[in-house]
Each structure stands twice: as structure tokens, then as C-alpha cells.
Amino acid sequence: MSKKVFEVKDLSFTYQKHGIKAVNAISFDIVEGEIFGLLGPSGAGKSTTQKILTRLLKNYQGNIQYMGKDFSQYGNDFYEDIGVGFELPVHFSKLSGMENMRFFQNLYESKADIEALMKRVGLFEDKDRLVGEYSKGMKMRLNFVRAMLNNPKFLFLDEVTNGLDPKNAKIIKDLIREFKEGGGTVLLSTHLMNDVEELCDRVAFISKGEIREIATPKALKMKYGKRELRVEYKDQEQVKLEVFDLDTISKNDTFLTLVKNNAIQTMHSGETTMDDIFIRVTGDTFHEDA
Amino acid sequence: MKTLKGLLRGEFQRLIKYNIIQVSFGVSVLWLLILFLVGKEEAGVFLPLVVFMDLTMMSVLLMGVSLFYERQENTLKTLMVTPAPMWGIAVSKIIASIYLAFQSVVVVVGVAYFAFDIAFRLLPFLAFVLIIALAHGILGFVLSLFSKDFNGLLALIMAYMIVFAFPSIFYALGLMSESIEPLLLLSPTHVSLLMINYGFDQSIETFELIYGMLYLIIASLVLWKYLILPLYPIKGVKE
Question: Do B75 and A79 touch (CB under 8 A)?
Fold first, then answer.
């Protein structure tokens, strides 16, 4: 059985200033070597949960264990273990990309090869340019390098491919997969379902501060999808549609006759998309600001 | 200690890259120009006031600028997820601010010493520069924590100057009655001026010097413990 990296029980958090309960009694585990997706619309509680787990927010209720030890027992050495990629770029704009990375890396015991990382994300040629001159996509790639500077065991990534073109998004996703293959664990907060399908082993849907579902993407598709097959076929120059029950399809004479005698145009199972599941589970639409 | 070394190195790198050292040096040159314009006779009167303005107002302002950039770029957020402790991050900023104050004082007083043959008590002067720069760096830190933006910071600094700095300057220039002095002793800038005057070989009561030093040191410790340490992680991060 895989070792639990984080064990979260009945975690709640209220922002005192506004009296808003951002997280309400959520419980979940993250096991070693998995990519765990935390999904939900803006304002659902994803960022608050991530801030608590990165110790940026302290006065929470509930119990958190990290590597089997109470979270509150860790000092600043906890940060030697983790890497954090924030949603928005956080760099010194009047320092070059390399100067930024060297400064942050000097604060850690363990040190990754910065030049190799910069090469992987395609920033090596621009390493001596001021970060203020970088495009948003370049800053996001630098954010990822920043998260990897200390050879972390656990990565917190927030909307990591936000603002990246498909080519650079693929590079980052490949690096995340490599990190996982090397034994690393990832908490990925996102609302990009494409990233979820490609990367996540398990996902938790969070809405209004509560976890609505935790499962593998495949299990969720099975649960929320329809056991049906939709067939479009040609019948006397007309395109017609028939829907068949998947569980009885092998004994369905209409289906078998149709396949045998008609030109099939399209054939789709009733498996739903993660986008649809997101909307159904969270009761929300994409890009909706809280 | 290892992280403090890295933080300090970064802080000094940014003082250069963000032109803060250059601006501070430029201000020192301006002060010197003013001293040369007023002439040798008056320079002895103006120099303590110039050092006073530099150590108090410039320390507050330059610390504010440094924290303004930090908040604008939200870099504290990413520093907070490193092994560097919060106190270390704050201390490195205060040390950098004290360095700027010393740089400026060395340039202005050094040139003035050779050009105008001004007498001063070296060791007490350096000790007082340290205490005054520390207190005003911390004050600048606190004021910037309570400002939403740079305009807010400038407004707070102006309010502070009107309440605490101007009365001391008017008093020093003989524009205010001597009876107001006991009240002025409540002002951190006024006790700073007394300490600077002593550094420039003027006679100041011993109790006023001891009171001034204790006042600035205790005020710095109180602001550090009750405002900077608890509020910096909250107000230093842009959400």
C-alpha cells in the first residue's frame, strides 16, 4: 500500500476579516507518487486549501498529517521538501531569470541543476534577460523552474499551464510526468480539464468549500456517463440516429442489423467528458468568479 | 544563518538593480551641493540638519520603496515558501536600510569633514547613526505595512513629517519657543536630532542622550515584535 504524504481530516478555515468559511470540514489523502487534482471553480476553496498545506495560512481547524507526523510539528525545514508553483508569476522584474533562480536557490540545502531546467522549459537562451521583459508564458515557465529549484519531493502547482501555448504546455506536462515517475507527488489545482485528464491519477472536486467527489478520472466518467451507444447511419440518403443500451447491445437485433446493412457515419459511447462532470458535480460553470 | 546570508546577498543585489543605492547616492550628492551653496560658515549649522533629514526621512522613504516593489511584484509570497524564516526576511531588509543610511552619512559627513573642517565625535556619532537608522528603517517598514499603495505611503510619510519632523526642524532653527522642548522629547525624530547634534560636538544633556537612545531602541523593539512580525506575512502579500 502506498504511503500517505498528506492526510487531511475535517479541515476548515474561516477568513476572519470577512467571516467567510472558505473550507468546510474537508477530508482527503494524497499518497506518495500520485498526481492529485484539486478541481473547482474560482472561490471554491482550492487556493485556501493549498495555502493551508503550504503553511501560508495557519489558523485552521481540523487535523493535517504530513509524512505521518502532525503538520504543526514541522518548522521551516518543511519547505526543503516542497516546491510551489503559484498561479501568477512572482519574480523580481529587474533581475534576470537566472539571477532570480540563483537567489531563491541559495535559500535551500538541496539544489537542482538550474541550467538544465531552464533548457528543458526553453528559457536558457533568455536566462540573462530581465524578467520584466519576459512574456506571460515565459514567466509561467520560470515559475515552474522556481518550484523545482530544490529537488522537491512534493509539488504544489496552481494553474500551471495557464497562459502557455500548446507546445510549452506539453513541455511542462512532460516534466510533471517525469517528476512523478521519479517518485514525486503532486497536488495540482486547476480548472483546465484537459490537464486533469492527461495528468491526474485521482481528483477531488471542491465546491463552496466542500469536497463533492474524490475518485479517479475514469471512475468519475463511468459514474456520470451513460451506458449507451449513439450510432449515426445512412438510410436512403438520410442520416439517422439511434441510441442503444450498452449492457444489452450484443443481443440487440436492431443494432446488429443496422451495423450489417447500413453505412455507419459515427459511433460514440455515452462516456461523458470531465468538463460535463465538473459542471454537474460543482453545480457551476467554468471561469465563474466568486 | 545560512538563509540570512542568502537573503542579505539578494537584498543588496536588488538595492543595486532597483537603483535604490544609486538614488540614495544621488541624494547625498544633492545634500553636499546644498552645503557647498550655503558656504563654509553656515555648513556647520546645516550639516546636522542634513544628516538628520537623511537618517530619518530618507530611511523611512527608502524602506518604503523597497517594500513597495516587494508588494507590487508579490515576491514575499514565494519567499514565504522557502526555508527562510519571516524574521530573517524582515531583518535582511532592515540591515540593507541601515547600510543605505551609513553610505549616505559617510559620503556627506566625509566630504563635509574635509571641505569644511567640521568637528564631530566619531564613535558616539557612529553608534547614534546606527540607532537612528535602525529606528527609522523599522518605522518605514511599519508605515509601508499600513499603506495600500505608494501614494498612501507618501501620505503617511508626509503626515509623520508634519507631526514629528517639522517641529524639530523649526525648533532647531529657533523658530519655536524653548518651552516646547519637553513635548518634543516625545518625538522620535527630535531625540534623533539631539543625538546627531551631540555627534557634531554640540553640548547636549547626558540624560537626554540616554533617554533618546533608550526611547529609539525600545520603540524599535516594540514595533518589531507587535507590528512587523505579526503583520508582515499578512500585509506584505498582495492578494
Answer: no
The amino acid at B108: V
Interface pTM, i.e. ipTM: 0.89
Alpha-carbon distance of B74 to B238, in angstroms, equals 6
- Spatial strand order in the sheet of A4-15: A20-31, A4-15, A61-66, A69-70
pLDDT band at A290 (very low <50, low <70, confident <90, very high): very low
Report domain extents, chain A: 4-222, 226-270
Residue contact B9–A103, C-beta within 8 A: yes
For β-strands A82-85 and A154-158, DSSP reports them as parallel
Strand partners, A83: A155
- Chain A positions in Cβ-Cβ contact with residue B96 (cut-off 8 Å): none
A92 in reach of chain B (CB within 8 A): yes
- Helices then strands, each counted (H, E), chain A: 10, 13
Contacts of B152 (CB under 8 A, 6+ apart): none
Cα separation of B129 and B161, whole Å? 19
Q: What is the CATH number of domain A4-222?
A: 3.40.50.300
Inspect the interface and report whether the beta carbons of B77 and A93 lie closer than 8 Å.
no
Strands (DSSP E) found in A201-247: 202-207, 210-215, 228-235, 238-245
pLDDT at B85 over 70: yes
CB contact under 8 A, B13 and A146: no
Model pTM score: 0.87
pLDDT digits (tens, 9 = 90+) for A127-154: 999 999 999 999 999 999 999 999 999 9
